[in-house]
Write a structure and sequence with these properties.
The protein has 201 residues and is mainly α. It has one domain. Helix content is 58%, strand content 4%. It has a two-stranded antiparallel ribbon with strand order 1-2. The relative contact order is 0.13.
Length: 201
C-alpha cells in the first residue's frame, strides 16, 4: 500500500492520467470540483445515491477526450457512454460508483482529516481556508507549474497542505495516510491485546 501511495504522490506532479472503468481520465482539479458541485454531482456534493447519469457526467468532465471542437467532443462522449454501458456486471451502476469512489479515495489520501478522521468532506466549501493558506505560504500560483490554483490537481494541493502543516507543527505533526492508519489500527489492536493479557495475569 505504501508504494502505491508514493506513486500517487509523484503522479500528482506530472501530467498523469488514471484509468477508471477502462476510460482514461485526468487528475481532478479544484476547478473540476467546483464545476461538478455546481452541477449537483453526488460524488462531490453528497446526497442521494448516484444515478447512471451522474457516473457518466463525472467520467466525461475528467475524460482525456473531452477536448477539441464541439462535434468531436460529442462523438467521443457518445463512444464513452457506449463503452461504459457495455460493462459486464451484475450491478453496473454499483460497479461504476465503486470505481469512481476508489479514484476519489486516492485523490483524498493526503487530505486533512476532519474531527471524525474522514478525509472525504462533502462539497468544496472547505477549500476556502486551504486556498488562503496556500496563497499566504506559496503565493497566488502553483510554484511547480505557475498555474492558478483552480487548475492544480487536488492531490497536489493536499500534498502542499501536508508539507505546510508538517513544517508548522514539527514533531506534533501526525500523518494520516491510508498506510499510516492501517499501522495505527494494528498498533492499537496490539496494545489492547497486551493490556488484556496483563490484566488476566
Amino acid at each position: 500500500m505504501h508504494a502505491r501511495e508514493q506513486a500517487l504522490r509523484e503522479q500528482a506532479f506530472i501530467d498523469w492520467e488514471s484509468v477508471v472503468l477502462g476510460e482514461r481520465i485526468r487528475q481532478i482539479t479544484l476547478g473540476d470540483m467546483l464545476m461538478l458541485q455546481g452541477a449537483g454531482s453526488p460524488f462531490i456534493a453528497g446526497g442521494a445515491w448516484p444515478e447512471a447519469s451522474d457516473a457518466l457526467q463525472f467520467l466525461w468532465v475528467l475524460h482525456s477526450e473531452n477536448r477539441g471542437c464541439r462535434l468531436r467532443r460529442h462523438w467521443e462522449r457518445s463512444k464513452m457512454i457506449a463503452r461504459v454501458a457495455a460493462i459486464a456486471s451484475d450491478d453496473p451502476l454499483k460497479t461504476c460508483c465503486d470505481a469512481i469512489n476508489a479514484y476519489l479515495d486516492e485523490v483524498y489520501q493526503d487530505a486533512p482529516r476532519g474531527g471524525n478522521g474522514d478525509s472525504r468532506p462533502l462539497g468544496v466549501c472547505f477549500m476556502a481556508s486551504i486556498l488562503v493558506r496556500l496563497g499566504s505560504e506559496l503565493g497566488p500560483q502553483d510554484p511547480a507549474t505557475g498555474n492558478k490554483w483552480a487548475d492544480v490537481p487536488m492531490a497536489r494541493i493536499f500534498q502542499y497542505m501536508k508539507a505546510i502543516n508538517r513544517s508548522e507543527l514539527g514533531k506534533e505533526f501526525k500523518d494520516f495516510s491510508p498506510s499510516d492508519k492501517v499501522m495505527s489500527d494494528w498498533l492499537e489492536h496490539t496494545n489492547r491485546l497486551a493490556e488484556t493479557t496483563a490484566t488476566r495475569n
